[in-house]
Design goal:
The structure is a single chain. 37% of the residues lie in helices and 17% in strands. With 417 residues, the chain is α/β, with parallel strands linked by helices. The longest helix has 23 residues. Bound molecules: pyridoxal-5'-phosphate.
């Protein structure tokens, strides 16, 4: 029998391997050698889902034992709870019937969203480094990703002025992600105002991935919906807030017109998150204590790692939110060589910045040589340089246990750096 026809589609072949699948492979390889690595790679909290949420899910199983397919936009009670929570948390008022829909976790919503708005050849703006489904969702919708770099010199914000007008004319969606993975940067209200002004001027939808607003250290992160809802959709998730990555539940909310089209996409794709899981999500959103407790733990872990990394002479950035540390590597290393060193010398797995960043054409101003009295000569030109904004960084996800973090700290301090 000839199995040569079993090729992945061209669309699939064009994609690079999912970055975190590569991290998984490295961990598996080490385990096969009998080494138990400390895994700072994938942003999946190892802490169990809080007991009270599991109890609500168990009760939900009984309550919904006769239910058929779940409602694809989420149970009314779940959407009402989201509306109440958004109001309490951000002072944002949302109609549960028209301005909120449930998702099967942030990833599902983010990946499928462009299908509702993007036609072949349309551009979607997204950060580099950034969460890979912004790109893959765009490609699957036959759109063209346009990456804006998140650079230290811009405070890890996009510089909208650098995006060519020709691209903006064909742009449908701008992805924002604050609190930002991987840089740990939070958005100020001024930044959100600036982004909204830019997007409205160019008729671009803002899709704001706010899946990390609940993991923060000092100030509470904002939602872009505090400023405006017009042409804006927000993606939220219970994965990180309530250690529910395995339950696959989140929501999208914002402009009614956008939500309506997004619901249309989802009716064609899925049948929603099971009702008993939604019961767990309702319980999770009714409780803030577990979130505060978890944030306290992340702060302790963050502080140990920041102290450890600066003790070996590295320049550190203090994340304001999220459970990531975006760590600059030594000058003579790249993200990949340094990640390998950590793996080989300390059995520590991190994500090399290059794996979650896209090479970008960065316009550089250069100076032409000219004599000082030659006033007419144009002394500045622009040259394009391709660079990867993640090249000099590695990402630590602060998901290992406290004991593992202490072990990792010891290993780094006694490693040969
Ligand atoms: C930036 C970002 N957005 C969204 C998500 C989606 O998470 P989930 O699909 O578990 O809700 C993740 C998960 O790692 C993420 O890092």
């Amino acid at each position: 029998m000839n199995f040569n026809f079993l090729h992945p589609s061209n669309r699939l072949q064009k994609l690079s391997p999912y970055a975190f699948a590569e991290v998984d492979k490295l961990v598996t390889d080490l385990k096969k050698k009998g080494i138990e690595p400390i895994d700072f790679g994938v942003g999946d909290p190892f802490d169990p889902t809080p007991e009270f949420i599991l109890d609500a899910i168990k009760k939900g199983l009984e309550k919904h034992k006769n239910a058929g397919y779940p409602n694809y936009i989420g149970m009314k009670h779940y959407r009402e709870k989201i509306s109440e929570w958004m109001n309490n948390r951000f002072n944002v008022s949302l109609n549960p019937d028209t301005e909120i829909t449930s998702t099967i976790g942030g990833k599902e919503g983010i990946f499928h969203f462009p299908l509702g708005f993007v036609n072949p050849g349309d551009y979607v703006l997204m950060p580099s480094p950034g969460y890979p489904p912004y790109k893959t969702g765009t490609l699957f919708a036959s759109g063209i990703p346009y990456f804006y770099p998140l650079l230290e010199e811009n405070n890890f914000y996009p510089d909208f002025k650098k995006i060519p007008k020709t691209i903006l004319k064909k742009t449908k969606i701008l992805w924002l992600n604050y609190p930002n993975s991987p840089t740990g940067k939070m958005a100020t209200l001024d930044f959100y105002k600036h982004a909204i002004e830019f997007a409205h001027r160019h008729n671009i939808i803002i899709a704001s991935d706010e899946c990390y607003t609940e993991i923060y250290f000092d100030e509470k992160p904002h939602s872009i919906l505090e400023i405006d809802q017009k042409n804006i959709i927000v993606f939220q998730s219970l994965s990180k807030r309530s250690c529910m990555t395995g339950h696959r539940i989140g929501w999208a909310c914002g402009d009614e017109k956008i939500i309506k089209i997004f619901k249309q996409v989802k009716t064609n794709i899925d049948s929603g998150t099971p009702n008993f899981i939604q019961e767990g999500a309702i319980a999770a959103l009714s409780n803030e204590k577990h979130v505060q407790k978890m944030n306290k733990k992340y702060r302790e872990k963050r502080d140990i790692m920041l102290e450890t990394l600066s003790s070996i002479g590295l320049k550190t950035y203090r994340p304001e939110a999220t459970f990531y540390i975006w760590q600059r590597v030594p000058e003579d290393e790249t993200s990949i060589t340094f990640a390998k060193k950590l793996l080989q010398k300390c059995a520590i797995v991190v994500t090399p910045g290059e794996w979650i960043s896209e090479p970008i054409k960065i316009n550089q101003k250069t100076f032409k040589k000219h004599s000082s009295n030659d006033k007419n000569i144009k002394n500045r030109t622009k040259t394009a340089k391709i660079d990867n904004p993640g090249k000099n960084f590695i990402r630590f996800a602060l998901v290992p246990t406290f004991q593992q973090i202490q072990k990792a700290s010891k290993a780094i301090k006694s490693g040969i750096f």
